[in-house]
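At your convenience, could you comment on the folded chain following this short note?
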Amino acid sequence: MLKHPKNLTNLTNLKDDDAVLQPLYGRRALTEPIPKYKLPENEMAVRTAYELIHDELMLDGNARLNLATFVTTWMEPEAEQLMAESFSKNMIDKDEYPQTAMIEERCINMVARLFHAPEEGQAIGASAIGSSEAIMLAGMALKWKWRQRRERQGKSSDRPNMVMGANVQVVWEKFCRYWEVEPRYVPMQRGHYTITPEGVVDLIDENTIGVVAILGTTFTGEFEPVEQIHEALMKRNAETGWEIPLHVDAASGGFVAPFLDPDLKWDFRLPLVKSTNVSGHKYGLVYPGVCWVVWRDEAELPRELIFHVNYLGGDMPTFTLNFSRPGNQVVAQYYNFLRLGRRLYAHHASDARHGDVSFRRDWQTRTVRIGQRWQCDSRVRIRDERPHTLHGVRSIGKTTRTRLAGARLYHAARCRGHRRVARLHSRRFQPRHGGHVPGRYS
């Protein structure tokens, strides 16, 4: 998190070097120091302002080498041009920009059909700025639907819980804390970093608003056994009369599985899968800032969560945690859908998997020692032989200068109340508890 310097309210307490920028340029406009933390008194020439900021940003890492945040770092020039042309279009103002709104609707339809939304139903969805927002929206829908069921039964709705693996992305913990839902974590076991049907069934009860399964986990990229979890839930629901649904967090795998594993049942082909999210800026191949959340039917999205606003013109239904945002990311996603089609999406996903297989094959030929001894097993993940931390791929950065996230693989004894912290340094890797393996999908 970025923080202001201490004593910022009194800039006289800062050293001169900390309070101002002092670039070494011959340009007259830059002969005087430029304040860092307060507005300068006078204007600056356009080119001067650009070059000053441009040069300062050169101190950042190279985005093309960043594997840590799993986002797209390159798009075709034509896509970038379309994005530049739609930066100024406010997505929320659908009366003023009806064609951009129509493009968003088309994208939602494409995603819903890709995930086999029932033709007899009326799937509904929304765009979001990322999976974090999409997950918040999906989680709210689960909680509201659960509360409606409890109220119809005349039962209390003051102790909701959600069942998920200890390997979930931190946004699920945020959702539970912000919306007062008890998180129940299925613990990870050494050498096995996905949840199991048995682990899920042991934790659910009548107050469970939903179960989360991940298609492409943050730590190892594995697909969790969604179909097996679904069958276990179906059986328990039939025995108890509960109606516990599934949400599939397909942020990473949603644009991989349909093309490489089309027979894998994880989506709306399973009746208990009520909603799913997929990240456009991961394997949707769009620059950061777009995600999609889809419900199998409009009945799964409670009406009281949808707001109608009219102060921008006509009546506009909206379900979002944000309001104003540019339409360029949605336009870029639509460009990719048209430009790539199923064939090229499958080609890109296949290339990614091939790279993963090559990485594993090369890794199996070496032994790395960084405080511990590590090895790669036949199921793709780098795993530990003894303790809990994971350092195996850290040494890659010394030769490739690639940015990898620092992450911890959680075991049963450490699965509650303690989260991993990933840190990057401008010059070298800084994993708090070890390195992170680039995503894989098998």
Remarks:
- The domain at 91-347 is CATH 3.40.640.10 (Aspartate Aminotransferase; domain 2).
- The first strand starts at residue 20 and ends at 21.
